[in-house]
Structure formats: structure tokens, C-alpha cells
Amino acid sequence: MALSTQQRDALYAYVANLLTESLNDTRDPSVVDMFVSDIASVAHNALGDVVETWNRTACGVMCRLPMELLAQSFSWLDLTERAKVTAVSRYFRSVALADSSLWARIELDERTPRLTDTLALLLERSGRVPLDVHIYVQNEDVAALFAPHISRIRTLILDKTHDTSWITAPTLDISWIFEQPAPLLELVKVPPVRHLQTVLPLPAWAPLLRRLELPSTFVLPVSSGHFDRVTYFSGWMTTDFAADTDASRLFELFPSLETLQLSFTNRYTSVDNFPNTRVPRTLEEITLHDDGDGLNVPALLALWHGHPFRIVNLHSIYAPLATAALEHMRSVASGPWHLDLGQTECELRTEHEAVYKVNFYDRYAGFTDIRDFLGTFGSIVAPASVFLQQLTMLFCMPCLHSITLRGAFPTGPSDWELFDGRLFVPQLQTLRLEPYHHAEERWQAGELQHCSRCTEELFRRFTLEDGSPLSKIPRLVFSEVARPYVGEEYWAWIYQRASSVYIEDELLWQELEATDT
């Protein structure tokens, strides 16, 4: 909306009158320029006042809220939107800046422009309240900004950026985290740092610490004190460019551990360096990761035989660790156990629902590797192709009562005729089939035909103790995807090899029991 002619003429006359008076008082050009600037400044200030008045009127209910409630509503916004609030109006800005807690949760990703300047501003606005920090560190200057504030940091998570050259540099210094008292610190997570060994301070450094994820090998403090509140700890036992960790006293220093993660690089370390004192009763979950030949993991896990973990995660690039997992399982549970077999991983579960997850990366977990333990399995779940490829010899599974095959089934005899092994499964009760789901009907029909041929062949591999074929199984169960196809002629054989047929829990067919005449 433009000024009317009358408004323009009136404004012109008023400004011209002011300028005339100014020129009558002085003819100094600099003074006249200053006078003109004052006129522009008055107009600018008037604009700000008018806009603020309009904002206070237009925002309605928001501006009638008590300042405490308005600040609380701002806390629901993410940090970027919260910063925008300070530009809405003077009132909003004053409320937002008056509440330091609004700026105390610092979560910035690697795409944040001018990250260093942004962090400095947030640290200033947060005053003296406790800080929760989660940032992607781009250089040492960013991390160093927090050093003067370590005493009020409650959570400190430093993540890697895609450009990690600074992290692998030998000059990186994170000692500021551990060199000053941190009375509020509860969680520390630092990304892996090469060429570094972290020296842990005495427990008095962070008396409230609950979770500690170290970026490197570490040196435990020589102290009779304990980190009594720490329930989660992770660190490196070996790395390529630093001395090995001596973690023999780890459980003494952290007596309340619930979760432990230890990593190894390409070399074997002495068993004397392993945590070898009494395992805390609270320890329920462990993760062991070995990038080398995998010898460290079985040796370490063997020290803890008899301790009933709830979750065990084992990772190795080259070594098959299923045997180590099963040996530990045998030390705490008798069976029957469950095996979920994949291409490069397997999941094992005890009868008490303790879970062991084993990742192999470069190879699959096979029956041959764990043949000495097959007698303890009560159920197996596996991709159909992986399961059939295991049949290289006679495998005895006297306790096995359930098999589930899922995913794409081999397309023809050439895919499994080389595998002529058999399964001794006298207690087998249920075979469940979960064929791969295809969007197109013609592909789905083909998948079910492959499933039928492979399953019929598999039945020929099931044997009893004397080597004779297993005549029937009590339950053959299909997943829902098979419903339109189970009546096809190529499934006719199932009525001679199964006593009952189900789609999920729905009974489709059941063999009539013979009666005496």
C-alpha cells in the first residue's frame, strides 16, 4: 500500500521544514548528513515499534501466555526453529533469550553452516545451565570450544563427519574431556581416534557418570575407588598405532556394568590384559568386535564361561565365532536351543531367551562348523537356499522339532543336487515354509513351484535313527503368501508326507486317524 498524495505532501512539507531549520543553523555538510541519518533512523525505529505492536496484537493467545509457558512452548521446537523464534518479535526474542535452558541442548549435524560461530553463540546463550551436546565434529576448534564448559556438560556425544581426516591425525587432542572435573557428566561418547591412548582419570573426575564410550585403547587409573554408577562401557583393547590396553582390573573399576563393548584390531593381545576378575552380577550384554583373525574373542569369552549373559554380540571379519558362542551357551544352559541362520550371520537363543548374535562378514555360518552342537538345537530358522546348501553330510539333530525355511527357494535341481547330505531328525514336528513374496502373480506362482520341488526333495533327506526315511511330519505350515497356490497339483504330494496342513494358524487339512473295525 503506497502513501496517498495528501500523506506524501504532508510528509514532504514536514521533512523539508526540518531540513530548512537545520541549514539555517549550520551549513556544515557533515552535520546535515547526520541530520538526514537521524530522520532515517527515526523512520526505522518507528517501523520497528509499529511492527512490534502489530505482532503483539496479531499473535493473540500466544502473547497472553505467561512468559514461563511461552518459553516452554518454544522448547518443543528443534534448535533451528527455536533460533527463528528470536526474529519474530521483540517480545518473543526477550522470552527466548531469558530462558537459558532453551539453548542448553545443542544438537547440530555436519551440514550446519558456520558451525564454530553457531556453537559459540549457543554456549553464550545457555548461560550456566547444564549442557547436553551432540555434534558432528569438523575440526579441533569445535571440540575446544567446550573445554571451558566441561564442568556443566551433562551429555557429550561427538560424532564423525564424512571427512574424518582430522580424526585420524596424530595431533588430535581430546584430553580436555578428562583433565578437568566434570561433576555433572553422565554420558561420554567419542568416535574412534587413531594414534591415541586415553588415560582415564580417577573416579572423582565424574561421580555421576553412567555411560562411557572411549575412542581408543585406554589406561585404567590406579585407585581403590570405583565408577559405581557406570553401567555402559566401551573401548579398544588393541589398535594399529597405540599401546595395547591392560583391562585386567576393568571389572574392579566398573563394578556395576550392565553392558560392555570391547574391540580389537589386527593383532592378538595377551590374555593377561583381558578383564579377568569376578564378572559383575549386573553384566547382561557384551559386544566383542575383532577385525583380525578372531582369536581374541574366543579366548576372552572363555574366561566368562558360566556367567549368564542376556545378549552376546560377536563380530569378526574372518573367523567363525559360532563355536565360541555355543561353548559359552553350553556353560550356562543345557538346551534345547534355537538357531536362526543367515548368509553371513546367525542368531542363537537358549531356552531362557538369552540371545547370541554372531556376524561373520566374509563367510557364512555352516552346520559343519557347529556339528558338535547340532544335537542341542530344538528349532532352526534359515533362508531356504542357505539351509539346503548345508546338506553336505549326515547331520544328527535328535532334539530338533521345528524347521522354518524362508525367502527365495532354489529354482531347480541343479541348485541343490550337489548337496546330498541327510538330516537325522526323529523328533521333527513342524516344517514351516515362508516363500518370498513377489508383486507379480506369475513370479509368485513360479516361486511356489520352486518351493514345492525343494521341499519334496528335503523330505527325502529326513531320516530316522536307523537311516530309514521319516515317513511323515505332524504339521506342515505355510505363510499367508501361499494361500492361493496350495491347491495346485504340484502340491499334491504333501498329503502323503504331512499329517496336517496349515496356513498360519488355520487348519486346511488333517489326516483321519485309523479306527479299529
TrEMBL record:
Supply the InterPro entries for this chain.
Answer: F-box-like_dom_sf (IPR036047), F-box_dom (IPR001810)
Q: Which PROSITE patterns match?
A: FBOX (PS50181)
Report domain F-box positions: 59-106
SUPFAM superfamilies per record: F-box domain
Task: State the Pfam families in the record.
Answer: F-box-like
**Protein's name in the database:** F-box domain-containing protein
